Here is the input.
Amino acid sequence: MATQKRCLISREDISRRVKELAGDLNRDYQDCDPVLVGVLKGAFIFLADLVRELRFPVEIDFVRLASYGDSTSPASEVQITKDVELNLEGRDVLIVEDIVDLGHTLHFLKQHLTMHHPRSVKICTLVDKRERRQVEVPLDYVGFVVEKGFLVGYGLDCGEKMRTLPEIYTLEKD
Ligand code: IMP
Ligand code: MG
Here is the structure.
């Protein structure tokens, strides 16, 4: 069975929504000097577009995570393969993620960053994919809510392919 991709979110809609999210952050973080922590690799395009709409100083760091799962606990084992390098103690931290699916990744990352004694840790995700959520994580800023599907483009990959598409597509079997 071949897989087809169908455009789900246009580049105009992404651009408009990124500006709206930045507007919310400009309101909420204007006096905070926060650290934005991007989750590699998927969030790199979203983070790059988002920070150029911010009208307050930010520092940027990255983490990279690996998920391991089996049939009984899919993707519930998360490990850090690249940690933050800035000192987060007393800082306002905003995690910037591409997509939340089961929820294990962000649940783990939020707990991990909390051990660095920041003043606050909040989450900004481009996509909240609802259907398969296993762990509820509070999502403070959400670009788009989708129920299900496998999404690619604008940073999101399928086996490292299709990250650079400027729109977001859903992969469908025909
Ligand atoms: P989870 O919330 O622990 O299931 O992990 C979310 C991570 O899985 C994201 O950061 C992505 O790396 C990956 N992921 C989940 N759904 C998709 C998708 O639809 N397209 C591409 N990557 C996805
Ligand atoms: Mg990711």
Residues 12-147 form a domain with the Rossmann fold fold (CATH 3.40.50.2020). The radius of gyration is 16 Å. DSSP finds three helices and nine strands in the chain.
